[in-house]
Design a protein that fits this description.
9-stranded antiparallel β-sheet, globular, binds zinc ion, mainly beta
Length: 138
């Protein structure tokens, strides 16, 4: 068993192509012995982006706080998610998340620990951008 206390896991800056003002805390991960599911807490700061991508595994997302826009590029659709909303993203579904200039959001994300070697296909060629220290965003 492992108990992770609030604030114990330092956030990592998300450095994937097109990511902006995004961090992730890997709360429960494979080095902890999780061999089926991992759990991560994503934070998008103001004007943040988790870039469009897809992968051959599903994940489940719960909006802990804030307002999050779920973008579905291949459906040309944007859905607004609020605190307490949940989303199931099936394998192969294109998805991205973003926040507006005056929004930020925390989203708990579950994903399988056993993944194919190529984890995600990113649909953005922009470099990642991070310009908001976590302390200033809260
Ligand atoms: Zn994803």
């Amino acid at each position: 068993m492992k108990i992770v206390r609030s604030g114990e896991i330092a956030p990592d800056i998300v450095r994937e192509p097109g990511a902006k003002n995004a961090t992730v805390q890997r709360l429960i991960d494979t080095p902890d012995g999780a061999d089926r599911f991992v759990m991560s807490l994503f934070e998008l700061g103001r004007d943040g982006t988790s870039p469009p991508h897809y992968h051959d595994w599903e994940h489940e997302i719960y909006v802990v706080s804030g307002t999050l826009r779920l973008e579905l590029p291949d459906r040309n659709e944007v859905v607004t998610l609020k605190q307490g909303d949940s989303v199931f993203i099936a394998r192969g579904e294109q998805h991205a998340f973003s926040t507006a200039e005056d929004e930020s959001a925390l989203a708990l994300t579950m994903a399988p620990a056993e993944r194919p070697p190529i984890r995600s296909v990113f649909l953005s060629e922009k470099p990642y951008q991070y310009d908001q220290p976590a302390a200033e965003r809260r």
